[in-house]
Recover the amino acids of this structure.
């Protein structure tokens, strides 16, 4: 008999995300990471938090204002969630600033000194002054704010300085702003070791910009606006024009956060809040430099690569290390690439070779986030110009990639490709490429690429993803149905081998989970996904656990399920991996299904399962299934990077007693990276990866 579930059996989505970002921040204190690698995690933490406020907090504030309930299974309202978020961030800010200060001290010992203008020596000050005169003064704009000079509009994520000024003893106090545009560096490089925050230099030249006035106080600040674009697609005559207008409106959204230097005096803060119309609850003070994402300037400095983890080049293993065309390779066998350990090059070759193959009739692809200089899109353009039938499904609603996708959509259209801008009411998040080639006898052959990640060579170097090639006729037929569904008016398309959201994936998942539940103690589920939010899926997993099935979940980010709760989730284990590479692949194992292994573009969230077009792919090839299963079990045994979700919602290192152990465990990403590097060096083929992982696990368990 299943136990009745209560709100306390579900973790709040927003709090779970914040805990994920905390795990990112904790990597800034991981002694296994070199100093700049630690700073990288602070930068990632900051950019993650920016997006969280622009989208999630903005949405909660809108719900609070409209008195709409979020309706989550945890039962928390918008007001309660906002209060929890503010409290969480306020407490974590102290941890963030303490670690940032400690890290600055460590970096100084390693030749990277971050100094304010006042701490520079005379020679360095002269250089800073020269830089101000030649690079800053001509670009920045001093802005007076008074009856005839209105307070300016500040775009989303604008960085500026507020100043309090006085002309003379009996003169009134004046206020002004200095906008610090993104074209200027966040940190000015004074010499080979010294970097100075730009606002520090600007403040010491206030009198050059406000001639005749003396500065009384100043405060750097940064604004975050609601950046969620709402578009009524059904009413749009031209979706591109509507989206472009939405992008312009993004810069004018309601302010949801004001970050300001802690040293700001009360008058100056009141001046800002009055003009920006910011609630005092949405003001966050900082002691360290604002805009954590700007630390990438230091991280990317090539002089300091020795302070980062050693970069490992992605490898091509046989059969993809040969000069044989990719289509010929996959005509013989299904093939898989494990990104980023193996190279993304076969994917790019697959499209470019198809574009140049005179026997290829058609190329169809979904494009979600393709990057700003995509060789894949360039190949599609060449194919279209050569007269091939090219269909590109460019998802213009891919958040924060809209402008880039607009550019590619227009370029593809100009080349003669058939461009689809998505589907009304749904985002197309599926990752699929379909090539049709006429063979020697006149028959048509289908070649399909399916992936858990985007067609983006940049993210392919830092995201772990599954990249799969097949000439399986049934999957090829499903690819035809899929693209006909996208490009036409079909409503009830059913794929036979693949499963498509929003109609097929969730029912299939619930069916697979229920089947393992029926096997009771013999049932086993392993799922590696980015997020678990969907209530129906969580309830199904709870029921399977209560039936005795063993469930292991590898969830990098949000997890609204609580493991280890007596009578509810005793048989569920959840771990999260945050490491050198972003865990992005979704791989599923169901012990008693046929086939046992699947991979998918979809996370287990309502948006993916019910509001997006996604694909879930079965793995029929026994060797590929073996590899993916071995990779899952390897990650479940990670005792260096893995953190276990506890039944109280907190996370702790799996190997929390490692200091007392001779064997501190292993990092799964490093193990796969080392195996691929060794196989490449020895000239061994790709199908040796699975046995190597299995051998490693066997030795580690002895």
């Amino acid at each position: 008999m299943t136990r009745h579930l209560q709100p306390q059996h579900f973790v709040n989505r927003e709090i779970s995300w914040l805990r994920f970002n905390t795990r990112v921040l904790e990597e800034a204190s991981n002694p296994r990471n070199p100093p700049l690698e630690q700073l990288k995690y602070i930068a990632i933490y900051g950019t993650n938090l920016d997006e969280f406020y622009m989208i999630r907090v903005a949405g909660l504030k809108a719900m609070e204002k409209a008195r709409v309930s979020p309706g989550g299974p945890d039962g928390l309202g918008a007001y309660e969630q906002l209060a929890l978020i503010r409290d969480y961030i306020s407490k974590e800010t102290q941890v963030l600033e303490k670690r940032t200060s400690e890290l600055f001290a460590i970096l100084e010992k390693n030749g990277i000194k971050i100094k304010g203008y006042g701490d520079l020596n005379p020679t360095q000050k002269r250089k800073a002054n020269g830089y101000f005169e030649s690079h800053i003064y001509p670009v920045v704009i001093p802005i007076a704010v008074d009856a005839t000079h209105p307070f300016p509009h500040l775009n989303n994520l604008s960085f500026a300085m507020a100043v309090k000024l006085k002309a003379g003893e009996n003169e009134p106090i004046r206020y002004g702003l200095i906008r610090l545009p993104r074209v200027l560096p966040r940190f000015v490089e004074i010499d080979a070791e010294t970097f100075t925050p730009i606002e520090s230099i600007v403040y010491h030249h206030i009198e050059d910009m406000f001639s005749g006035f003396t500065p009384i106080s100043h405060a750097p600040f940064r604004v975050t606006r609601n950046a969620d674009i709402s578009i009524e697609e059904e009413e749009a005559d031209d979706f591109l024009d509507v989206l472009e207008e939405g992008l312009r409106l993004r810069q004018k959204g309601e302010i949801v956060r004001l970050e300001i230097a802690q040293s700001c005096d009360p008058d100056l803060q009141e001046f800002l809040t009055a003009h920006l119309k910011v609630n005092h609850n949405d003001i966050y003070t900082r002691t360290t430099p604002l805009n954590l994402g700007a630390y990438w300037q230091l991280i990317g400095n090539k002089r300091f690569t020795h302070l980062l983890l050693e970069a490992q080049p992605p490898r091509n293993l046989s059969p993809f290390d040969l000069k044989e065309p990719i289509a010929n390779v996959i005509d013989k066998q299904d093939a898989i690439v494990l990104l980023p350990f193996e190279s993304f090059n076969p994917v790019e070759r697959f499209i470019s070779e198809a574009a140049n193959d005179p026997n290829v009739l058609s190329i169809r692809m979904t494009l979600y986030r393709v990057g700003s200089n995509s060789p894949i899109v360039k190949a599609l353009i060449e194919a279209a110009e050569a007269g091939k039938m090219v269909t590109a499904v460019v998802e213009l609603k891919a958040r924060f990639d809209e402008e880039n996708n607009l550019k590619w959509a227009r370029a593809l259209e100009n080349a003669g490709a058939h461009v689809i801008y998505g589907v009304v009411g749904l985002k197309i998040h599926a990752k699929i490429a379909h090539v049709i080639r006429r063979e020697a006898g006149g028959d048509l052959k289908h070649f399909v690429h399916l992936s858990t990640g985007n067609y983006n060579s940049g993210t392919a170097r830092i995201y772990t993803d599954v990249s799969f090639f097949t000439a399986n006729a049934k999957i090829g037929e499903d690819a035809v149905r899929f693209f006909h569904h996208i490009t036409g008016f079909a409503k009830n398309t059913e794929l036979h081998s693949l499963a498509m959201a929003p109609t097929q994936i969730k029912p299939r998942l619930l069916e697979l989970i229920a089947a393992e539940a029926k096997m009771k103690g013999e049932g086993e589920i392993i799922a590696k996904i980015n997020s678990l939010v969907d209530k129906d899926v969580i309830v199904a997993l709870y029921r399977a656990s209560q039936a005795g099935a063993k469930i292991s979940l590898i969830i990098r980010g949000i997890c609204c399920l609580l493991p280890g709760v007596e009578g509810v989730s005793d048989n569920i284990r959840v771990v999260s991996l945050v490491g050198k590479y972003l865990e992005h692949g979704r791989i599923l194992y169901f012990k008693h299904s046929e086939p046992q292994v699947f991979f998918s573009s979809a996370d287990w969230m309502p948006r993916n399962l019910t509001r997006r077009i996604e694909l879930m792919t079965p793995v029929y090839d026994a060797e590929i299934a073996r590899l993916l299963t071995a990779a899952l079990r390897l990650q479940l045994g990670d005792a260096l990077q893995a953190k276990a979700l506890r039944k109280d919602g907190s996370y702790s290192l799996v190997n929390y007693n490692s200091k007392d152990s001779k064997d501190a465990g292993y990092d799964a990403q490093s193990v796969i990276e080392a195996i691929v590097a060794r196989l490449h060096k020895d000239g061994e083929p790709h199908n040796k990866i699975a046995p190597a992982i299995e051998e490693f696990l066997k030795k580690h368990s002895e």
